[in-house]
Amino acid sequence: MYRHGTSDYPLDDIIIDPFKRRPPEDAIAVSETTSLPTLPLDLREFQMQQEKELLQLSLQQGKYNQKRAAELLGLTYHQFRALLKKHQI
């Protein structure tokens, strides 16, 4: 609920523009960090490699706190642990 300075006068209109907000300064565009692989390729192997790299990156950014690393990837702690075991990290 938005409150303005005085409740004597109702709001005339509310403008919500979801596109007005700029991305954070430290945000990196996906196109800057990854390039598309050349075809033909083994899709499963590519996915496994990308998943492993993301796990390692999240661990580094989370300062090797597995709970924080899981949050960075939008996973539960148990999902994250299962992926670590899967990739033998």
UniProtKB/TrEMBL annotation:
InterPro entries: Homeodomain-like_sf (IPR009057), HTH_Fis (IPR002197). Coiled coil: none annotated. Residues 49-86 form the DNA binding HTH domain. Gene3D superfamilies: Homeodomain-like. GO terms for molecular function: sequence-specific DNA binding. This is Phage shock protein operon transcriptional activator. It comes from Escherichia coli.
